[in-house]
Amino acid sequence: MYLKPILSTLCVIPILLVTSLPSDPLTAHDHFPLALQARGSNTTFSYCPSQPANEFYQRSIFTNFVNTLYGEKNVTKAFETYIAVDLIEHDPFDAQGRAANEAKLSAIIPYASFEVLRHSFDADIGFIHVKVDELPEPIALADIYRMDGTCIVEHWDVTQARPANATNPIAMF
User: Fold this and answer.
1) Alpha-carbon distance 129 to 127, whole Å?
2) Does pTM top 0.85 for this prediction?
């Protein structure tokens, strides 16, 4: 008799916890006030330094990062908003840190022709599969990112060109 009201209350609690987070991470400053960082006379919102975040919220942040970097091709905004200053970079030809990688990609992404084929996020890892238009044939690119809370802190990338003797016409895309 007393168990039914208790069980119905417990069933509502997880729904309240999920719905209490903003659906749009761009309004996260209401939930993560420490994420605002002053830069000169402007105040730019940043998810770094990291704040605690659940996987649902991380997925939303990651999706916005993908849209900003790969959709809008706005490298500066993507890096200042989502990437840790001390980014761990695993590309053997790139330097460590946000500034070096932002500078490199600012010279490439705005001018590159590519298509994001898919992206996903699970646990604290996000990936993007990209078809990059190169001559004579496109190449496949996989970018892998690790998040710590609200901030992207680590990056790996893998590229693959279609070999001349390839037998599978759809293997890469």
Assistant:
1) 7
2) no
